[in-house]
Amino acid sequence: MKKLLAIAISLVSVNAFAAGYGSAGCGLGSIVLGDKPGFMQVFAATTNGTSGSQTFGITSGTSNCGSAGKSSEQFIEANKASLGNDIARGQGETVDSLATIMNVSNKTEFAAALKAQYSEIFKTGDAKTINSKIIAIAKSNKLL
Prior knowledge:
Elements lengths: L1 H17 L9 H6 L5 H13 L1 H8 L7 H11 L1 H10 L3 H9 L5 H10 L1 H4 L5 H14 L4
Helix pairs in contact: 5-10, 6-8
């Protein structure tokens, strides 16, 4: 049993170094072990997986799992065409989902504010710029 465990650990560590392991992702492992390279990422990933903190952290935005700004930027990048259409209409599933990601409670007002600024938001096709403009609109609107 010990030999099997030793072989498994050595194979995992070889793969980790060969793959150029970066970060094991967010979760308890990233908080405790940080972004130390190599074999430490195996421990971080194991800690994340066995504690369940990574899944919870991704859902709730805790445990070092990205900021709302980064999450919304990733959502915008993945759903740019649909989001553009929904913002132009002032309603839709992607606008509602973005409001949820950004913790906006008044989704109707959020959709209306984005619709009013559609041409400004989508001047460029860059998700980072679109995200920045949407965040600025949300922060400037006192009803959100």
